[in-house]
Structures are given as structure tokens and as C-alpha cells.
Amino acid sequence: MHFADELIGRVRDLGHPLCVGLDPHLDLIPESFQKSTMRADDPATPEVVQAFCLEVIDRLEKRVAVVKPQIALFEQLGWRGIQVLEVLLDRCRANDLLVILDAKRGDIGSTAEGYARAYLEPGAGLGADAITVNPYMGRDTLTPFIDRCSAHGRGVFVLVKTSNPGSGDLQDRSLEAATVFEAVAEMLTEDCRSLVGPDTGWSSLGVVVGANFDEQAERVRQILPEALFLVPGFGAQGADAEQAVRAFRAGSGGREGGIVNSSRAILFPECESWETGFEAALGEAIDRLAEAVR
Amino acid sequence: MHFADELIGRVRDLGHPLCVGLDPHLDLIPESFQKSTMRADDPATPEVVQAFCLEVIDRLEKRVAVVKPQIALFEQLGWRGIQVLEVLLDRCRANDLLVILDAKRGDIGSTAEGYARAYLEPGAGLGADAITVNPYMGRDTLTPFIDRCSAHGRGVFVLVKTSNPGSGDLQDRSLEAATVFEAVAEMLTEDCRSLVGPDTGWSSLGVVVGANFDEQAERVRQILPEALFLVPGFGAQGADAEQAVRAFRAGSGGREGGIVNSSRAILFPECESWETGFEAALGEAIDRLAEAVR
After folding, report:
1. Is there a catalytic annotation at residue A68?
2. Is residue A53 over pLDDT 80?
């Protein structure tokens, strides 16, 4: 498998680049699931999160190409949360969904090896198809992840220009001839080129660029023409669909070049009650958002 | 509790700033413990890691002030590894050791809340006294951690200038009037000042600065006079003791201002066999390294 080829192939088949963020915020889980205090340290809470997420995952097959679990929301439940994540990853595989684990890891070589082994190694309980990583520590810290892309067809998304309000504190600072986020993108050019897929021309080394920063996205696209974009910040975080796909470009499947993530709008759609309304509300949310970013 | 006051108080009592890195690399664990294939995906391996680390932790009481578990090496063992980490954190508390969890987390607000809840909240199974965090995403992403420092007396160490070979790729790049790592340090000045302890004058907002970059450490010290330094890269990673404490300064307990981490030299000292030689070798390693950085 080549991650980018596989992902873009599925996006073409489905006709939309929507990615569902599996962010089970405890205070947003529907009441009918709440069989615990819903505190993170209640040992009964992980089961609630599992039951809820499985219901969601079972409604995603053939509707989206890819899901993005946010590992922090499982880590806050302790080891039982990680056990739940393992169950969910199994179910995603069974439902033929690609998985990008949103872990934003980054550490020196021997430690990054541990992370790469945990999340990108074939057979790992927590194995995913791709992972998000943080570039602050430099290119050598990305190597163990990039090695798994070459060896096992995995993918990696490097934080470049994130969607949060403070992302400019560092990322927008000007270097002599560029900004920090452009320097990060430039640091990735060689690896990005080396991981281009034979079928689609897209690279398994992707970048995270917030939907709300569409001008910066165009600049990153110039530097990394083959990088897949993982675009957060669409919907709940404020950016519109046109901004979210600004850096996509004409491909054989229409305008393409990445995926647009939505978490809350899909996991927690407005509906009168879970039992009577959730299934329809979730379906409508996917259809509406998919249409918007198509 | 105020983290920096507590840590520096203990460092003064012990007379050295040595921190033991709990990095249980599977290929380095003594043979007599190896009751599994020692592969990360063997469900028997976490027990081996636990048995080994407990033996080490039980030999650290009253010898060092603080330990630094590297969470990646537990994550690579899946949920069972996180369960082991929980057991180890309990034992550290029982042995009166402070714990800095080396997790290098960083994410947008609502997600960083999850990490802060997982690792810095009182009562959390994986609760530590301090955590390492990554500043790439900006100051707002550090807020949930800093809030726990104010509210619960925890500490946080922000990556500023790391010890790995590629740390210059981004951190040493020149901005208009400084470098990226200096910009990160400048971003932290206000929070650092707000978390200064009443007893020692040291701040619970610390920074990670590699031992091998002593000149950069002096520059960071100028920008953040009250920040505790967490210094990796001493010993196994090549820097000497003089470099490691370059940014320490005169305090009421002698030269102080941080802690110097050593992992492999203490966990895996050279000795003929675990049964007959480990205890002595570990003690000698601690004494030798503590003396060096005293």
C-alpha cells in the first residue's frame, strides 16, 4: 500500500475529501450513553466513550475515506482509554476506514523510534495508517516516521501552519527570507518528493495547514506541490469550505490534494435525541459537509 | 506545593541536580529479566519492563530528587505499557520521588486540555509533577498546562533548544533580530515570571535546553532568569558536566537552576551480571554523575 495513493483513490471514489475527527469530548457525548459520572478518572467512563465511538464508526463505512482519532481524549482516560482506542482502531479496519492518528508526536531519534513502532508498525495494536507529527525538533526527529512511510506504505502529516489562535506566535515569525512555517515546509521538500505515490502523484508526507489560513496554505502548496494537506479548523473552528480547499489543485479526480477534517459537527450533530435522531443527523451532517468541500 | 520550590529544595538537600531518565529500551534490559520475546508487541513484554523499572525505582529513593519517564517507550507497548507507567508513577510517589513526564505534548486548546487533565490533574492515574511540552503551536496551546501550574503547583518544561543533531534545522534559524529558540524563550517570559516560587525564586515554568548547547543555554538564561532548566544530552548523548550546568547560577544552595538528566548510564550501567553487580553499578553511576554535576 502507498498511503497517499490509497487515500486519494478513496477520496476520488467517494467524491469528497471529508475526514471525520474522532474527538470524544466527554461533555458532548449524548445523554443516553452516559452510564458513568463522565469524569475522566471514573473507570466506567472509557466504556461509555467506546460505546459511543463504535456507534459512530459503524455509521461511517462507505461514507468517508478516513477518520482521525485525537489521542489526547483517550489518554485523559488513562490506560483504559488507550485500550478503548485499540478497540476502535480494530473496528475502523473492519469497516475499511483509513486512520490518521492525531498524536502530534516528535522527539529525538531513539524515542521517536518508540513512537513510530507504537503507531506505524504493521501488527501494532495501536497501528494506524498515518500519524501527525511536530517538526520543532528538526528533520532527524521525523526520520523514524518517514522510514515507516517508505517501508510499510504509511503516511505522516507534519504540523506546518496550525489552526489555533496562537499559531502565529512562532509559525508566522519572519526569518531572513521567509517565515518559520515556510522554513518547516522547505525542510520537508526532499522527503515529500521521495514519498510520491506511483498512481496519483501525491506524497505520503503530508502537512497540517489550518483551514483559516488559506493564504499561507497557497504558499505551502508552492513549496510542497505533492504534499497532501490535512486541513483542520473547518466548521466548528470557523473557516468556510472554500478556504479549507484553497490549496487543493486540479487532479485526475477533480480538484484534490488533501482531506478536510470535521469533528464536532459530525460526532455531535444537533438532534432531539440520540435514539430517534442521531443516525439521520449524522448522515445529514456528513452529506452537507461533504457537499461543501467537494 | 510549588513545583520549582519543591524540586530545588530537594536538589539542595541532596546536593546534586541529577535526574534519572526512565527510558526502558527493550534491547538494553538485563537478560535475567527477559521473560518474553522482548518484542514491543508481545503481551508479556510490559511485565518485564515493569519488573525492571520497579527494581530501578526502588534504588532511587533519597538518592535523586526526580525521575523522568519517557512515555514513548511505554506507548510502544500499547495500553499495557500505559498500565505499567501508572504502576511506576505510583511507586515513584511511594518512594517520594518527583516525576517529570517526558511527553513533549502540544495541541490546540480543547485537546491540550485533555493532555493537561491526563498528566497534571490531581488524582489522575497518570498524574505527574511536571510534563515536557512542545511550543511549536504557540502560547495559547501551553495555557492548559500553565493553568495547572498555578492551580495545582505543577511544573512544565517547554522545549526550547533540544539536544538532537537536527535541532538547528528550525531552532537555530535566524529571525529578524533573534533565532527561533530565542523567540520561543521570549514567548515564555511573562508566564515564567508568574510562576516563580516564593521560597526559592525559581519558576515552575521550565525549559528544555540540551547539554551540548551551552552557549545557547546562556542566551536562554538571559531571557528567562528564573526558569528551571531540564538538561538532556549529558553523558550518553555526549556533553560533559561543565556544559550541562553552564546556565545554572549562584543560588542560596550553591550553583543551581535546573536538573541534569541521565538515562542510560544509570539504568543500564556496565556490570557483569544483574544479580551480583547491578545494585552496586547503579549506585556508583549515580554517585559519579551526581558528583560531576554538583
Report:
1. no
2. yes
Q: Which amino acid is at A235?
A: G
Q: Residue A254, Cα to own-chain centre: how many angstroms?
A: 22
- Which residues between 117 and 136 in chain B have a beta carbon less than 8 angstroms from any beta carbon of chain A? 117-119, 121, 123-126, 134-136
With a cut of 90, say whether residue A90 has pLDDT above it: yes
Position A277 scores a pLDDT of: 86
Q: Select the residue of B78, B105, B124 nearest A41 (Cβ to Cβ).
A: B124
Place of cell 478536510: A260
ipTM: 0.87
- Is the pLDDT assigned to residue A100 strictly greater than 80? yes
**pLDDT bracket for residue A237 (50, 70, 90):** low
- The rounded distance, in Å, linking the Cα atoms of B231 and B253 is 19
Residue with cell 505515490: A197
CB contact B80 to A (< 8 Å): yes
Q: Which of A35, A62, A68, A104 is catalytic?
A: A104
Residues in chain B: 294
Closest-CA residue of B relative to A77 is B118
Confidence of residue A199 (pLDDT cuts 50, 70, 90): confident
Q: B64 CB contacts (<8 Å, ≥6 apart)?
A: B14, B16, B18, B19, B20, B97, B286, B290
Is A191 an 8 Å CB contact of chain B? Answer: no
Q: Which residues, at least 6 apart from A45, have a Cβ–Cβ distance to it below 8 Å?
A: A26, A36, A37, A38, A39, A77
* A157 neighbors A143 (Cβ within 8 angstroms): no
CB of B107 within 8 Å of any CB in chain A? yes
Strands B203-209, B155-161: pairing kind: parallel
Global pTM?
Answer: 0.89
- Provide the β-strand partners of residue B207: B158, B229
pLDDT tens-place string over residues B265-294: 888 888 877 788 888 988 898 999 889 888
Buried b (16+ CB within 10 A) or exposed e, A157-167: bbbbbbbbebb
- Identify which of A198, A247, A252 has the alpha carbon closest to the alpha carbon of residue A227: A247
Q: In residues, how long is chain A?
A: 294
CA distances from A41 to A36, B10, B100, B117 (A): 10, 30, 20, 9
User: Residue A236: which pLDDT band, with cuts at 50, 70 and 90?
Assistant: low
Name the residue in chain B with its Cα closest to that of A115: B72
Q: Which chain B residues are Cβ-neighbours of A126 within 8 angstroms?
A: 75, 78-79
Contact B174 A174 (CB under 8 A): no
- CB nearest A137 (choices: B80, B109, B164): B164
Please, is B264 exposed, middle or buried when counting C-beta atoms within 10 Å of its C-beta (0-12, 13-18, 19+)?
middle
CATH topology of domain B3-293: TIM Barrel (3.20.20)
Mean per-residue pLDDT, A178-184: 90
Q: Is B109 on the interface with A (CB under 8 A)?
A: yes
The model's confidence at residue A83, banded by pLDDT at 50, 70 and 90, is very high
Q: Helices A180-187 and A214-223: crossing angle, nearest 10°?
A: 30
Share of chain A above pLDDT 90, in %: 61
Distance CA A103, CA A119 (A): 9
Q: Is A28 on the interface with B (CB under 8 A)?
A: no
